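Entry 14. Ran structure prediction on the chain below.
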Amino acid sequence: MNLLTPDPGLLFWMVLSFLIVFFLLAKFGFPVIVNAINKRKEFIEASLVSAKEANERLASIQEEGEKLLAEAKAQQKEIISAAMQEKQRILQAAQDEARTSAQQIVDDATARITAEKEKALREVRSEVATLAIDIAEKVLSEKMSNSAEQKKAIERMIEKL
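Output, structure tokens:
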């Protein structure tokens, strides 16, 4: 049973060595440890504050980014709308120009056809007049007395032409 009851001398020296180690730790070790813990605590608190500020800045930057994105989308819609309007205007102008050009071509062609038609009619009239004069000269030159002979002569001359 000696194991359960310590010797008084041993107990004294154990308590004394414990008090010396405790005193040395209290005098030199604990302040260093406490100081290191306090510095670590301050560093963690400063890091938490910095992280909170960074999160706030990040949230602010995200809001600005969303606003810029919304503005960019609005500008994109405006640009696309303006481009579509410009496209429609250009298409309309091209269609109007094509219609005007086509109408001008049709008008020119009609005028040329009319002029050619009138020229052909003048030429036909001139030819008919010349033929009529030639026929009349031949009829008069033969000096026929009856109209039946004149008709036969005219028919022969027409067949020769």
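The chain has two helices and no strands. Will compare against last week's run tomorrow.
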